[in-house]
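Record now logged for everyone:
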Amino acid sequence: MKLLACDIGTSHCKAGLFAMDGTACRIASCAAPAHYAVDGCATLDPEQLWQTAAAVLAEAAATDEPIAALGIASMAETGLLVDRRTGRPRSDLIPWFDPAAAPQGERIGRQEDPFVIFQHSGLRASYKCGLAKILWLRQREPQITENAVWLSTADFVAQKLTGQLATDPTLAARTLAYRIDTGDWGADWLASFGLDMCLFPPILPSGQPVGQTTREAADATSAGLKAGIPVAICGHDHVVAALTVGAPEDGMALDSIGTAEALVGALPRRSLTHEAFASGLVFGPHVVPDQMFWMGALSASGRSLDWLRGVLGDPPLSYEALATLIGQGTTEPTDLLYLPYLLGAQAPWPDPNARGAFIGLTAAHSRRDLIKAVLQGVAYEMACILQTAEMTTGRPIPALVAAGGGARIPAWLQIRADVTGRPVIASPHAEATLLGAAILAGAGAGVYCGESMAERLLSARAVLNPTSPITYRPDPDRHSAHERLLDIYRTLQAPLRAALGLAARR
């Protein structure tokens, strides 16, 4: 018996086959590039994405053993409209990072007091949320929402596999149409925009099967998948990956390092306060029953590094060359500061118009200093999020568990430990989101023992506690040096944002 999972990210689509004890048997991956339309809006072709997902699932599922369940996770705010009757796409998939819906995001923010919006949704209004994207699509084509339904990426792939329309709470909570305080779509809130709840799919618990793979889906995967496999929508990739960190009561946070980066922690369900609103963090339902998550994110983490690789080389500087440059010289911090706001800023100082910057550049700085400044700048931003999360939740964070592509750069993990003054544990699970989705789907399908979903999850999570993970511990002297630079980083936030914002408007 095996478990299968699919993780649809910003730049790659992955699938994994796992043994019941969590051991990875096979991982398949394929690029999922964005298509840029003539008007400059970034879109993803739904059929191309489905074909990519089907291909990686077929490759990962090549086994003679029965597959007990298939779990799907994905990036959160990326979504599309499909015809409710036929399931055919009405629009392209609009990526989370595309700012075309910025005017609609601003309109949403004016519809109600921002704090009231936050209390109900755990979010601030922005172009990223599904509601803003729907309003943007309707402005371009007024009839597009008739008999349509909004699906997040994982929902769309599940619909292609099963023919069923559904979502889970963690993805629903990123639309700004869902109320985290009541656990359903906000009928009155949607009506204020001339929208109906039927524009959104039924909400099922994370990991609960939405249906079974159809014969048509099996054929689409070249018979890599069998018909009749239970399929579950497991949720927002960062939150699903957080399942592999450990029990919520341990207090550790997941540092999910990819194109974007998110620091994710768990806490018992609670009402959201003005202090939580002021923190810049976002909140929502966790995949673990009776828990909620807090999250602080940076849209341009790995993207900052990829941008610099392209600037430093044509073709872009390879990761091997990057590692060589990082390894040269001392391990002391560079005095060159980098603000990693290539795609705006989120917690703890939300500002979609924030700009990136290098500060303190001299003729003496080298390519290595530029690289190190980017690594440090991202780490400084995450350290500010960590400190804000501790103050807001009242819960100490004793260590970070790093996962994702960026966690494969040892020097970056050491910098994070030195900057935060906390141990950084490299997740032994190379594909934490895939494993989390597999565990959730298995739990939802009832393959683990236990009376309730919570008990099944706890039983399944027992396989996620390795005996000897690699841990990067902070160096006291480097931590002191970083603390001084971090103070400057914080001090420069307000004046630099004001100056760069003024320059951008001219």
